[in-house]
Amino acid sequence: QVQLQESGGGLVQAGGSLRLSCVASGRTFSSYSVGWFRQAPGKEREFVAAVSRSGGNTRYADSVKGRFGFSIDNAKNTVYLQMNSLKPEDTAVYYCATSYGLVPTTIESYALWGQGTQVTVSS
Length: 123
Description:
This protein is an all-beta fold and about 120 residues long. It has strands spanning about 5, 10-15, 20-25, 35-40, 45-50, 60, 70-75, 80-85, 90-100, 110-115, 115-120. Strands 2, 4, 5, 6, 9, 10 and 11 form a seven-stranded mixed beta sheet that branches.
């Protein structure tokens, strides 16, 4: 059974950086796009960023463009989300998910989800 596991969250000051990891067990990422979503308390889950199977296609929410980026380690079945210049409004639980689509932005496009990792940015 395929499972996704996020890690790398934590507490960081505004302007700092974190790198989130999304590891797939049971299947490689070669057949999927991987997306990141986040959900802040009292708010709906929102799209953050997505990367295609090859890494050649990416999509970012306007709120994170220029600050967040991807890297992929196929040997480790891991997709990384590098988050720089973090802001207090980036505070949320971050989820990774997989889709058969090409970097879709809607929650409904993603079938498999991880449990999430908390990111807290202090001002």
